[in-house]
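Session log. Operator J.P. requested a structure for one protein chain; no other inputs attached. Running the standard single-chain path with token output.
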Amino acid sequence: MRRVLIAIALLAGTSLASPFPLSPRFMYVVGCAATIDKVDLRTGLTVASYDLAKRTGGRPLVPVVEGTFDACLSNDLVFDARSSIFYTVVPTTDVPGPDGKKDYRVLGFSVPAVRVARVIAAGRSQLSPPGIRLDPRGAIRVLPAPEPDIALDVDLTGFTPERKPLVNQVLEQSGGRALLRLYVGKPQELVLAVADLGRGTLVRLEGLPRTTAPGVHLAPGGTHVLVEAMAGDSTSPERSGSLALYDAATGRVVKSVTDSRTKSLSFLALSPDGRVIYHANDRYVLVDLGVRFGTGAVLRPVPAGRPGVFFAVR
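Structure written below.
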């Protein structure tokens, strides 16, 4: 059974120099042990798998060590859709020095060949991996440490007629919109809203099914919100297989779908062409919502605990 990253999600810091394609054909799933699955979005089948630690000759470019954080393709996964290269930070050796420190480098892999296209020094003798970002021109910047892409909350003072602050938590953000949990009413009540950060508007989601904060997902581009309805009691909620898709601009449901296959699987991603993707290790299930989303990356202030994902036409 292949390991996937569950402590620090690679997608937590995913950023783009250019947006994902609107009609991608493939999804690349980057696992913890330097493995990548290439999944056909039309069939849900894995059409290729890569082991980066074994494809680089006698001395692997991606050292893998069982049980340590940077055994994974550590921290950030950055995909530049314009050059079709994804970048990640890896240690140069699987054994730290006597002081517990390691040297790091940034590796860029071409898509779809998944071969090393760039090698960039990323720091010597460090206790933890650095972070990486793409600037608007597509150049890689190495940061002293990983940084969150977005804030933990939004100042909503000017978003309501009362012009009063609302305590909130940013769950996800994309396309200039933020999916928020509002702390109003009863403490156990889940109140969700979408803030348009450019227009200064706030739209609450109406008629929410019973769900949990980890069961709501902002679509690429911030156009919609997917809500997974939960069964079971409040102490041990379980997926019911029912999905409700909300229009982020109106807060109303525009589509409802039920698929029993999703009950025992874990949510992975929403694709720009309107598919909900679930997985269990290397098994993938796609639910087609029949709705087109945008192309912007979905950013999170805290790790989502999922493997890294990016979309490509090849």
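Operator note: The radius of gyration is 20 Å.
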